[in-house]
Design a protein that fits this description.
This protein is of the alpha+beta class. 12% of the residues lie in helices and 28% in strands. It has a single domain, classed as Roll (SH3 type barrels), CATH 2.30.30.40. The chain contains one helix and four strands; from the N terminus they run αββββ. Strands 3-2-1-4 form a four-stranded antiparallel β-sheet. The protein starts with 6 loop residues before the first helix and ends in an 8-residue tail after the last strand. The relative contact order is 0.25.
Length: 80
């Protein structure tokens, strides 16, 4: 079974989360994950549709497509 997203899905994620998009972490199953609620900035979307991140707490752990969950936020920190 192929777990990788197709090209259309990758391009959709890239349009939805362009570089500079601010997000808040809702769920990440990783022992090194930033705390839930941590804010961060999307740097890019890779060829697996993962979000390449710069978290405000200094972490750079990626958001894994179809596994981790984030929500976009406004400048004021409210969910969009």
């Amino acid at each position: 079974m192929n777990n990788f997203p197709n090209r259309d899905t990758i391009e959709r994620i890239r349009r939805e989360y362009p570089a500079g998009t601010r997000v808040k972490l809702l769920e990440m199953d990783d022992c090194f994950a930033p705390p839930i609620g941590t804010l961060g900035t999307v740097i890019a979307v890779d060829d697996c549709a993962d979000l390449i991140m710069r978290w405000d707490n200094g972490s750079s752990l990626n958001v894994v497509f179809n596994h981790d969950r984030v929500v976009k936020v406004t400048e004021e920190g409210e969910s969009k």
